Amino acid sequence: MTSDPPFRFALTLDVGGSHITAAVVDLTSRALLPATLTRRSIDEQANREAIISGLAHAALDAARVEPYAVIAGIGMAMPAPFDYVAGVSLMQHKFHALYERNILHDLQEAWVGTPLAGMPVRIANDADLFALGEWWAGAARGCSSVIGLTLGTGMGSGFIRDGRIVTEGDGVPAQGELWSLPYLNGLAEEYANGQAVTRAYHVRTGATLTPKEISERAAYDDAARDAFTELGEHLMHILLPVVKCFAPDCLVVGGNVARSWALFGHLLQGGLNPVRCVQSMNFEEAALLGAAILSTESSAS
């Protein structure tokens, strides 16, 4: 992957379950332009026209701040399942109206008559782009191989080698997805997300709190510390065989649960050493940064 893209800016979008985020990224400084950051609410049950319109207008709103002529292309982070090469949504659990639709075609239609008409668009998995963003402009910058992990209501993962997204090969689970690996009496995700922290604390106290609330109690509440310790130990055991095969230089952990890194990060570092285990530097912005470098050339393999 080239380190100095030929154009100065990239236009990026990140599609979540309830919102669309768009921003222009400076490819030279490897940073979002704060003035361009746009966030639009989106109803995942909306019809196709409303969803595509929301995507198209979020991109136009963000791009309007910078001259279109210097934008290299458009990169977009989308959740799975999705045919990222063809640009076709395979999601049925959310955004059902987009099922089997070619999003690339729909967006190009929506941009007819605007400065974005005909501009190249590349789409990749949101967790993959989180990892790519941290490799390019974040906590894993300078590393040759990276595993990125996002912990929130679910568990996302991405694998990077030499600046490219990898979804197969030694140590890489199918499509780079760790969440569905068999673990104990279920799947890895059941033991390694925000709900797992909530559940662990409830078992100990009978109280049902969010991970953030539990984290805030950790200074004086043994049960809160124990809930995050349990998370860290499960994560370490889930990742150990993967790390041994993939041999990353760095593991970067993001998502809202990672904001409590001080409560479990040391367990990962101790159990996965010599791999450098770090908290995300960019959090929600990481996928946008990954989408920026994706927009300059194909990064998937």
CATH class membership of the largest domain: Alpha Beta
Report the end-to-end length measured between terminal Cα atoms.
12 Å
* Share in β-strands: 15-25%
Order of helices and strands: EEEEHEEEHEHEEEEEHHHHEHEH
Based on Cα principal axes, name the global outline.
globular
The SS-based structural class is alpha/beta
Major sheet details? 6 strands, mixed
Helix content: 25-40%
User: Please, how many helices?
Assistant: 9
Number of domains: 2
In terms of quaternary structure, what is this? single chain
In the CATH hierarchy, the third-tier topology of the largest domain is known as Nucleotidyltransferase, domain 5
| Total beta-strand segments | 15
User: What is the radius of gyration computed over CA atoms, rounded to a whole number of angstroms?
Assistant: 19 Å
Q: What is the assigned CATH homologous superfamily of the largest domain?
A: ATPase, nucleotide binding domain
Could you list the spans in which at least 5 consecutive residues all have pLDDT below 50?
Answer: none
> Average pLDDT value?
92
User: Which architecture of the largest domain does the CATH hierarchy give at level 2?
Assistant: 2-Layer Sandwich
Structural features, described:
The strands form 4 sheets. Strands 1, 2, 3, 4, 5 and 8 form a 6-stranded mixed beta sheet that branches. The protein is globular. The chain folds into 2 domains: 9-127 and 287-296, Nucleotidyltransferase, domain 5 (2-Layer Sandwich); 139-280, Nucleotidyltransferase, domain 5, CATH 3.30.420. With 301 residues, it is α/β, with parallel strands linked by helices. Helix 3 packs across helix 9 (285-294) and helix 5 (194-205) packs antiparallel against helix 7 (222-246). The model has no long low-confidence stretch (mean pLDDT 92). The chain is built from 9 helices and 15 strands. Keywords: Kinase, Plasmid, Transferase. This is Transcriptional regulator/sugar kinase. It holds the Pfam family ROK. InterPro entries: ATPase_NBD, ROK. GO terms for molecular function: kinase activity.
